[in-house]
Amino acid sequence: MADLNSKITLKLLIDDRSHKVLFGEADKDFVDFMFSLLTFPLGSVIKLLAPPTMIGSIGKLYQSVENLNEIYLVPNRDKSSLLQPKVSTNVKNHLLLDTEAIAELKYYICNHCNRKVTTVKSTVCPNCKQVMVTEAAFVVPSGSTSSATGAETGGEINAGGFVKGVITYMITDDLEVTPMSAISSITLMNRFSMKNDVQLMEKVVTVGMKEGLALLKASLDSPTALTDVFCSPNKKKAKPPPSSFVNYYD
Fold it and tell me: How far is CA 27 from its chain centroid?
C-alpha cells in the first residue's frame, strides 16, 4: 500500500491577474502519479471519488451494483469484481491515493502441472483438475534487453514507474505532459501574453493524498485541472512578496 503521508512538490507558473495556472514544472514522481491514473479500472476510480458526488450517470450505475441483491448474480460472480476491480501488480503503487480502496491483482498457478495461471484463488485447473492455490510473483520486465549498465543509461534501469527521472517535465493546465524545454515554455508564455496582460507568479505546491484525489476528479470533469485544484477562488490567496512577481510587459 502506498504511504498515505507521501508528498510530492510541484512548481507552478501562475497568471496572478486571472488566477490561472499557465503550466507546471514536474519531476518523475508527479508524472508517474498522473500516468498511473490511466491504469485504474473504472470501478476503482468511482470508489475513490464517491459515487454520489460524481458528474454524469456512472455513479448511479455503481450504486445500482452496490444495492443489487446478490441473489440476482450468476453463480461464482462476486460484486467486488465490479465495485472493486483489481489492479495489475506491474504498477508498483499508486502514489498519494488510498490504495486500500484498490485491490491488488494476484496470480495463482497450478502446483501440480504448472501449466495454468489464474487470478482467482482456488480455481480448478482445467488441465489436471487440481485446485490452484499457490500464489505466483509477477515479475516486472526491466525494460531493457541489452547489457548496458545503469551508469551507461543514466541509472534508469529498474527505476520503476513510467518515465525517466533525469529530466524535468512540463504539464499544462489541461494535463498535457511534455519534456520541459526553454523553447516550449517561452512559446507557451507568449501564447498567454498575447491574450492578456499577464502578471506571472511562481508557486510551489505540495501534492498529497487530498490533492491527488482532487486531481483525479478534476481530470475527469475539467479542462483546467491544475487551476481548479491549486488556484481555487474559494481559497484565500496569500499575497506573495513583490519580488516574486514578474510583469511580462515591463
Answer: 14
Residue bearing cell 452496490: 66
User: Model confidence over 88-145: pLDDT tens digits?
Assistant: 645 554 556 665 555 667 888 988 887 888 888 888 898 888 898 888 877 766 654 3
**d(C-alpha 7, C-alpha 110), whole Å:** 41
Full residue range of the structural domain in which residue 195 is found:
8-41+85-100+165-247
Record the pTM.
0.72
212 within a domain of the structure (yes/no): yes
d(C-alpha 250, C-alpha 247), whole Å: 5
**Domains of the chain: total:** 2
Residue 52 DSSP code: G
Nearest CA-CA partner of 31 in 215, 230, 217: 215
Radius of gyration in angstroms for the set of CA atoms belonging to the chain, rounded to a whole number: 23
pLDDT digits (tens, 9 = 90+) for 36-74: 888 888 888 888 888 888 888 989 999 999 999 989 998
* b/e 100-137 (16+ beta carbons within 10 angstroms → b): eebbeebbbbbeeeeebebeeeebebeeeeeebeeeee
Determine, yes or no, domain membership for 235.
Answer: yes
Q: How far apart are CA 23 and CA 11, in angstroms?
A: 9
CA 94/CA 220 separation, integer angstroms: 17
147 falls within a domain: no
